[in-house]
Amino acid sequence: MLLFLLRRIGVMLVTALCLTFVVFYLTNFPAKLETLAKTQAGSRMTDAEVESWLARNGYGGPLLVRYGEWLGVLPGWVVQDPDGTLGGRCIAREGSEAAAGNRCGLLQGYWGTSTRFRAPVADVISARLGATGWLMLWVLIVMVPMALIVGVLAGMREGSRTDRTLSTFAIATTATPEYVSGVLFIALLASSTVGLSPLLVNWGVIDGPVLFQGNARSALEQITFWNFTLPVMTIALYGMGYVARITRASMTEVMTQQYVRTARLKGVSFANIVLKHALRNALIAPFTVIMLQIPWLLNGVVIVEVLFSYPGFGWTLYEAAVNNDIELLLAASVVAVVVVLVTQLISDIGYVWLNPRIRIS
Amino acid sequence: MEPIGWFEIIGRVAWQLLPVWAALVLTFALSLRLKRRLGLYGKLFDSNIGMIGFGIVMFWVFTALFADWIITHDPLAQVSRMRNAVPGTPLPDAAGRYEYFLLGGDALARDVFSRAVAGAREVLRIAPLAAMISFMIGITLGLPAGYFAGKLDTALTFLANLVLAFPVILLFFLLVAPEIQNTLIPRVMAGVLFLVPVVFVTVLLNARLFTQPAKRNLYVGLVLVVGLWAYSGLAFNADPLGFWGMTPNLLNVFVAVVFVNAPTVFRIVRGITLDIKTRDYVAAAQTRGEGPWYIMLWEILPNARGPLIVDFCLRIGYTTILLGTLGFFGLGVTPESPDWGSTINAGRRLLTVYPHPALVPALSLMSLVLGLNLLADGLREESLKD
Known about the structure:
The complex is a heterodimer of chains A (about 350) and B (about 375). Chain A is about 70% helix and about 5% strand. Chain A is built from 16 helices and four strands. Chain A has a two-stranded antiparallel ribbon with strand order 1-2. A two-stranded antiparallel ribbon of chain A has the order 3-4. In chain A, a hairpin with a 4-residue loop joins strand 3 and strand 4. The N and C termini of chain A lie close together (about 10 Å). In chain B, about 75% of the residues lie in helices and about 0% in strands. Chain B is built from 17 helices and two strands. A two-stranded antiparallel ribbon of chain B has the order 1-2. Chain B is globular, with a radius of gyration of 23 Å. At the A-B interface, helix 1, helix 2, helix 7, helix 8 and helix 13 of A face helix 7, helix 8, helix 15, helix 16 and helix 17 of B.
């Protein structure tokens, strides 16, 4: 087990290294650097001015060297301005010229500065991740029980009417990407002119102009039922269908097993069979799928945070990508890649740990 | 003129879609009559879910095919004073054009109905083709990985996992950017990705026909001529006859979507191959002395077709969703493009006041993907029966 873990972590590190290099390469593309220079220092720069701006801000060196600087295995760049003051990657961090020639990168805990938000990347990312953490927490609280209940109910009597209805519902949710369900929800529940809200206002059921809020920015200060339901439901619905279908498949398989038939022949009640005999075995597969689903939720998080203007991690990723904020984008991709790899690891370990047949042998 | 009510709107939309209904009725009548002779496709008509799914999918396919007859206005033309018009609003000055905006106008005073129909064509032009190329790549790499195992398998699996560990949306932001479009990256990727289908078909035919050189030379030669002709046009935009071609925009989107999909297909094919290669008929073929590629392509692949066909339907749906995502973020599409994703994105700014410009493409996209998923479900059910 320890060897397995060590090997997995080794592969994880290599993967993370490859992926960050790809991101680094694509964000540091000459054409993209030119765009960055022009957005930062004025759009009417000549090519020579762009060159000198890039050199002054540490984008001049060879790609591999700069990647090493970013990682923190090579000393950070240092540039002498015409007026004699030294500028550099580590000088900007420490605030003194004594830091010239130091290494400062990921390994030293320095993530760089965001050109879009004009703040240290570490601060931006940690604050945004907190906001997204709440969103994900609620998504999981809503999604997991709903998916498991739908899957178990559908799978315990294969081919019944409940099964048909719930399976079709699960298929429908997987066919509704976030940007569709979000738009439907807003039009239906969060619009003051159409949908449900004007009716409810007419009947005097609600005080405000709309039932739910289509903008989740206020959830940063305080999460309420009214400002958080729509974003949470939008992500949870799309992720739910897949988990529910896996649960259903695993439940139907368990229900045909010998031990379930034996229990039934012994005269155990149907509820007892489902709850005591089938459920535990049926939940192994969904567990791994739920863990693997978390990285997929990241897609939804970006779409939903942009759609509902909730400034979390996904929104930051979007802003960083649109503005070619290199260091922020790199940090965001490191976080995203780590999330993917860690959830994969947990799902593997969980599969072994939950499955007595593998665990004991 | 008075605005028309919902009944008349539905009636007029149905009338515009007349060619689609006719084609649908014809397809279903023929298929139901001949269903015992049509194999898996015929069996699809035994399952209600599969039939509904197939109906929805064919509805959109025919809509895309007959789009030119169906649309009531030019999807890019702006009509003055029709900005954000509600569904059924008459044109102030029709002058030979269709008198109404059946499903309203968008923020730039274009006809929502015509744009949704034109959007179907945009989506169905890319999604099935991208899914098909992803499948060919996945199969070409997945079969040897599963069959030979060993170092090749380790290397390919590591590469596939590498791509899969990349958050899709981040990849799109990085890869489908205007700055990348004009560089070599998409061209090189297209050069590699589009070569695989040609190689796939060549190897497929060669493995079967190499004992009959005359026939082999004819077929393989034909495939190579057509394949390389299409390849030169699609990947490098260098088709001497100008028949095949893609704008850099489209190529970029295409490459990104294929790149995201292929590793998943690879993993599925590899898994199935690992399972099937232990069967007796594979051992029999090995004893007969068949070559590895013959066994992979003519013994293993046909026996893996059930799950692959099902996944193919799901993958077209997923590709549609990915294309919508790209459009939603305005990546790789021209600003005027009527594709569903960017229309939803354009409509969301005024969503709470005028929901119809965003709702129509949203529901269209949802129904197409739903149809594909139902179709896949029906196929799965029917293929499990035998």
